[in-house]
Amino acid sequence: MAPAASFNDSSTTVCVMDASGVLGTSLVHTLLHRGYTVHASVQNHDKLNYFEERENLKVFYSDPFDFQSIMDALKGCCGLFYSFEPPADQPTYDEMMADVEVRAAHNVLEACAQTDTIYKVVFTSSATALLWSNDRDKALDVDERNWSDINFCRKFKLWHGMSKAVAEKTAWALAMDRGINMVSINGGLIMSDDVTITNPYLKGAAEMYEDGVFVTVDLRFIVDAHICVFENVGSYGRYLCFNNVITSNQDALTLANQLLPQPQPQSQSASCFEDTRVYQQRISNKKLNKLMVDFDTQLLLQ
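^ thats the sequence. predicted structure below, dont judge the formating
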């Protein structure tokens, strides 16, 4: 692992893995716009021609369970933006997904440890990795210091939260053991054009809503957050990432209309406004907001 003296001392070639997901694709385009050379690593052979040919873009096929293919994509890179996409033959989250996600995270972090040029890893996790525990009824704010309880998640079949928590803990353990400079982004529900009511993040949405911890994040915001924590030499640890909290029935209805194929008719939604309760927000992203104050979204690297 190369020492990370400062961001400006390192190369501007980075790897995005998996680049075929909505987050990965957006990261690739934004990084190219900022002047990076990008290794776009995709898990699906059908996505190899997904990106337009550009001088500062190389597309790789990398199976997260094929160690050499990961090493090939990382070669010559100073950084990795890693997000997990479920395999095509197992697209939904279930009890076994945690094992799959852990093995993928382990392989990727081990490959980073064996790549001398890697300066920093930005590991995409989820807010569900810190929301679920037996203490959820206590009047305490949730932030980056929290972790979802694995047994609690297993008991209530919260497979997304369990998978994200176990995979992220695995990544952190390996990063600390191998001296990898890693930060994580624990994002809320990503609000992209293709998000639907079937998103696994939404299991337990009613409980998150009532607890004041149901958070969403615009795609552009979470992309900027990833790049900000990568470029900022002072970034460390975990960063809870969201820019909207669902705390009222009106918020919930607005979100439902974005998630459902057809907007809810006014006659069906009118009753939602009879309940005017507003739940207190119990989740904080102050750490990330403080870091992003001076982040320049228009910066082009020299």
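The radius of gyration is 19 Å.
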